[in-house]
Amino acid sequence: MSELQAGQGAALNISDAKSTRYRDVIIALIAFVVLALLPMLTSSKFLLDFVIRCSAYGLFATSLNLLVGYTGLTSFGHGMFFGLGAYGYGLIMQKTGVPIPVAFVATLLITFVFATVIGAICVRLKEIYFAFVTLAFQMLIHSTILSWVSFTGGDQGLRGGIPRPPFLGIDLSNHLHLYIFSCALLVIGLLLMRQIAQSPFGYTLRMIRDNATRASFVGIDVYRAKLTIFVLAALFASVGGMIMALFVSGAYPEFAYWTISGEGIFINMLGGVTTFLGPMVGTVLLLILNDTVTRLTEYHGIVLGIVILFFAIGLRKGLMDFVFEWYAQRRDAARERG
Amino acid sequence: MDLDALTGCLTTSACLVTQTTSGLIIGMLLFLVAVGLTLIFGVLKVVNFSHGAFYMFGAYFAMTTYQLSGSFALAMLAGAVGTAIIGLIFERGFMSRVYGRDVLMQLLVCYAFVLIFDDVVRMVWGPEFKSMGMPSAFQVMPLFIAGGVVPPYYLLLIGVALVAALVLGLGLARTRIGKVIRAAAHNPGMVSALGINTGLIYGGVFALGGGLAGLAGALAAPVRSLTPGMGFSVLIESFIVTVIGGMGSILGALVGALLIGLIRSFGSLGFPLFTEGLMYLFMVIVLVSRPSGLFGKEVA
User: Fold this and answer.
1) Within this chain, do residues A239 and A93 fall inside the same structural domain, yes or no?
2) What is the pLDDT of residues A182-230, one digit of tens each?
3) Would you call A67 an interface residue with chain B, using a CB distance cutoff of 8 Å?
4) Which residues, in sequence order, are CB contacts of B287 under 8 Å at separation 6+?
5) Of A36, A58, A258, B95, which sits most exposed with the smallest number of CB within 10 A?
6) ipTM over 0.85 threshold
7) A262 — contact with chain B (CB < 8 Å)?
8) Rounded to a whole number, what is the distance in Å from the CA of A205 to chain B's nearest CA?
9) Domain B3-134+149-289 carries which CATH code?
């Protein structure tokens, strides 16, 4: 498993923890300000839409990395929570007309319940079996959405638009407001996930990934830790789904289809799982790749497939892993010379 | 939900026979795909996520051969042998590079080939639905068994699959090659130390598994419509089969495939929209009660 381990280089130092947290918060604030200023520099709706899509997929992919990279849980059904977020939010808004924040919290609660039940069943199983059961649950939810036509709209999805009533002076039917709102969710989500990854709990997860038996000897409740991160990751994926539902003003069965999970894994691979922001880089890369390739050729599967092969067999790691190692090597070489 | 239709069918022999045979052919086709999957997993310890593409290639090869030569037997042969060759190249050229690496890597290489193979088929045969048509030898009156309609082609299909199951089971249990394959599954290092070329065995097993999926595709070509991406639903279903039966178990694949076939054919009566959901539900139930499947070895 050596090539796919998150946060290898980071040495744990308690006294550094606080300063790292301040640094993370400052980076997050700068990132948010830069993103928020973007609409002043460009009026390109395409670029802003691109950032909104990146927020949705980025939150989803990064939360998947908490499972795959940090805990060693190869979930192949993480996309179900993306779909659940989109449908939960869309249905609540369409059927009840509560304010948006209430719908957000309610969707998170629904996701929490689903993730706890599904997680309790899945995390007992190992490796490939875990991957399959999560996939099976994903398909179960997908076929439920398809077959429950009166409630979910079946294969047509939730149509007719999702109402976006203004709240606290934020009007999400305004494109600019929606953009800022998505960026804020993205930055807050990433910051929270970063805190989880760097917390003692995050290091417990790495220990479980590296040696679950040893972790349980030290007195860690492995099952409980795995379940906790499964549920937490599901919540972030659900937020990603909600952003998507807000953006397209609807929800479609494809959001809950297995290919979303497949793409999530591919994003992680593309960007690399050894750095926290790897999946974010992967998201940007995949979306650019998808957009350009579909414009250039109708056979975009071949192009995408070859790119995947290049990363999986040629490079043998994600882009951020590659950059990170190259940087570390150069630094070491410079130190030796100096 | 339409439980009346289901109970109505279960009490009339004609409907019972018709639904059971349709369940059996679904099950038998699934078995041929799933047994290759389980064999490859048992020996190579990789999950061939692109196995559905072999099924698809088998169907298209059979269709083209049948259109060119007019021979049904040749079409079946082309489906099986053609995909076996693709399987060999795929294993030696690509999969063998990711053995022993993370499951994620293996899934990704296969995912890449699913995308590539689907597009190759779209390029060569076009994106629209195709059909091979029933060979003239089988365009005869269907048989009537206890009032139920059974097309003769269904009997051939079930027969071929059963023969394949028998040959495979006996071959692995009794022949020298079978023993070497089982030994390689158990301890490849030792087999290699005894002077046996394990790379050849790996390639051979992959070719065999791919060829069986190709045969399934070829057999399905006269009764199903052909489209790029047709392999995917078959792949998911044969995953369910192998997981229910237990990864690496041939008997498990047979039992699992028949169960899924029957669930599909009878489920489509009682729960027309939730037939797929039933399969996933069944899989979840099996996995929760027996994590290693019905016939799988215990996993620690």
Assistant:
1) yes
2) 888 999 999 999 889 888 898 888 888 888 888 888 888 888 899 999 9
3) no
4) A125, A129, A132, A133, A136, B243, B244, B293
5) A36
6) no
7) yes
8) 18
9) 1.10.3470
